[in-house]
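BUG: 3D viewer hangs when loading the predicted structure for this chain

Environment: internal workstation, default settings.
Expected: structure renders.
Actual: progress bar stalls at 90%.

Input used:
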Amino acid sequence: MEHYSYKNAASLQADMRSIDFVRDLGIDRISDNHPWGGETDRMNGLRETDGYLPGPLVSKKYQYAKQRNVKVTFWPTMNNTHPWWPERGKPFASGKHEWLMFPEKRTLDGEMLSGKKFKETVQGNCIANRPFLDWVNRLSLDGMKTGFFASWGMDGDFFGGGGIVIPVDCPRGDHDHLPGDSTYASERALAELIKNVREHYPDVYVNVARPPMDLGVFSQRNVDAVFTIDEFAEPEPLPGIKEQPINMMLGDKVRKWSRVRVHHHFLPHYFDQPQVFVGPKGMGELGRDWPSGSIDYLLLSAFSSSPNQIYYLPTKSGMPDKDKAEIRTWMEWGRKNEKYLLVRKDLPDWPAVGKVDGNAHMIGDSGLVFLFNPNPRKLIGRFRLDKESIGLTKGDDFQVFQSYPVSDTKREFSFGQEVSWDVPPSTAVVLTITPLNKRNEKTL
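Structure tokens produced before the viewer hung:
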């Protein structure tokens, strides 16, 4: 999507073609790559008595998305009109100094969950301030009342920037917090903002990034999806493994960081929202040319990790038709198997040199097991047909067959037996497990 506010119908038409592009891929939900539909200048001009309504060109885009049966995510902000654009983004109603955290901009140090450090210039409103919180709550609901949006998202930080995670130190003594110590009050205010959307729109899909993505599972009470730790999808090979295709590197990272989320942060896997592909060239210094190859490995890594994903796609520059067709096929596969992807039990090994990692997605007596071999030689994946190993809770005798890549090999096992399966080099394998009395039923 365009970064700036639409100036004419031509820029709007370009984003309509982007909607067509993602629809052709089988993706049915989009977000702008900027808050408030990109209308930063309009948001800068709002006063405390104003409400929010998208402008005419932005509204046309949302109407077109609805015609194409593509759901749109509403992306408001909580204390700055555009936290990622310090040259243009400003605190809301900046003339109301009693709503500000600090009157002047300042530069703060930040660190991402992945360990990446950065500096950011920030200025924003204090959300832990009842009059301002009520106002920004109203703006959020104004957007939802338009009927354009099936989902709602939040990102940013409590300082008016895009991702600073340090104690919040608003010095004001007339806000709803102790002077110089506003972290807890800010977290409560954000939780109220999210809860307010959920209460008015119970079926809305709520996805968040910062601050909730850094605050742990207890900040996700009214949330459906949380942005990944691996924010920039930078291709990095596993230690000891060289010359992997980009999409294989990304698949290994998706599985690794998803395990961190589950086993270190205690976040249910279905909250995680992995970023699947590298950012396109339009993202600037972090963007790359579209990488073909190993798309199946990357998508299966993402599907096995979570039923939620986020895709940064080259909607303007495009991709080969064969890649579009492959992505569309896997989107259909994912929706068909959604009930299995909503449950997950990890096998012991993490993605690593000399290892086959994977996870199981079982419901009762049937389901799927994903096995991943990032290594340049064939290895064997192992698991047992029982509750402890893969979450199998019913049945006596089972058939195991390889549903991807398709193979004629079908083997029979009893409950509790170990399954050993050859996994070719640099390959993702999907095994289907069914009880013998269901072996003729189609499960994939």
